[in-house]
Specification:
Blueprint: H1 4-14, E1 48-53, E2 58-63, E3 68-74, E4 80-85, E5 91-96, E6 101-106, E7 111-117, E8 122-127, E9 133-138, E10 143-148, E11 153-158, E12 164-169, E13 175-180, E14 185-190, E15 195-201, E16 221-222, E17 227-232, E18 237-242, E19 248-253, E20 273-278, E21 283-288, E22 295-301, E23 308-310, E24 318-323, E25 328-333, E26 338-344, E27 349-354, E28 360-365, E29 370-375, E30 380-385, E31 392-396
Antiparallel strand pairs: 1-2, 1-31, 2-3, 4-5, 5-6, 6-7, 8-9, 9-10, 10-11, 12-13, 13-14, 14-15, 16-17, 17-18, 18-19, 20-21, 21-22, 23-24, 24-25, 25-26, 27-28, 28-29, 29-30
Amino acid sequence: MPTKHSLYALLLGLSACGSHASDSSEPSDDAASQLPAGTSISSNLERRAYVVSERSEELTVIDLDKLEIVAKVPTGGVGNHMVELSGDFRKVFVTSAATDEIITVDAESLKVAGSIPVTGHPSHLTLTPDERLIAVMAEDTNEVAFVDVRDEKETHRLQGFSTPHFMRFTPDGNYGYVANIGGDTISRVDMREMKVIDQIGLDNPADLLDDQEEGGFADAQIAHDGTLYAAHHASGKVITINAMTGAKQTELPVGKGPWVAFAEHPFRSLELRHVVPNFGDQTISVIAGQTKKPEVTATLPGDEEAYGVNYSSLEPDLAFVMNRVRQDVAVVDTRRGEIVERIDVGGNTETASTTPDGRYIVATVSNRNRVVVIDVPTRKVKKVFDNVGKYPWSVVIPKGQNYCH
């Protein structure tokens, strides 16, 4: 699998003449000057999508009511990876992985407000349930840093990880789980004591393969019944854990080279059916989690790389799989166990986010510098935004289904 760090090496080379993108359409220092003619900034901070581009500096802001780009904020970042928001949505935090910092943006003025130094190649961000801290994955130093949202300073840093890739929390915020993509365990963190208290891995050491750079766990998502699902890439297994107690429950064989078991989303009404893209054998596994013991109920044609799966409360039986190489979105009926449709997006999809009302899926089409808005009820592309920076990478929507890769 191609690694993210190879892209960052390219970015660092491009940044030798400065931290800003060098094309002729580089944004000015005034975010308002990036508004298309006739548009205005919405005061509703919840009805937005924030898009970071991996090979250019701008943060693109889309008004989801008007379906218009309302700003392209010049962040000055290099290798921007992901966005996280404060609990009141007034602050936007952007990881600039190649410059070891988090860029802060004021969501009301849509201008850069400052930066927070975070060493170690910061990538993914997660807001704690109490909305006080943001967990930052420092991949190069095998650490997790915690940044105070109000004071905008790093307050804690934990060690003992192996390329930490994503952190998820129990609803009460007492425990956090870190997926180690460079190792073979899920790290359990006591957030009250601020320390790692357990490493949860596979039963059989023979399953632990050391010859893959990213052969471990890419994410550890917690379903609304409190069960954590984590796919181990090298072994082809998904482990389940009781997130509250930390007790491991089962290991479930899926396809070869699974990426993530997509089990966490904001739609509480959906049945517990989770989708796992398997890169190695180009399949999709559907896991029924509502049964006494989780089981694979369907194995469907997949893709070499499918970094995202989205759900919607408006279509609770469907999953939308972002097929990067096939350059489409597969619509999977998780109840019937079949692909019912494919949505052509005209390029490779990386990630997407679903709006909290379930109506739209906002997806990056990275090799086309494009973002598309898929209307879930009709399963059609409703809006296309071109020239969204260089290689738009990830999307975050307030209260939406947010993830990264």
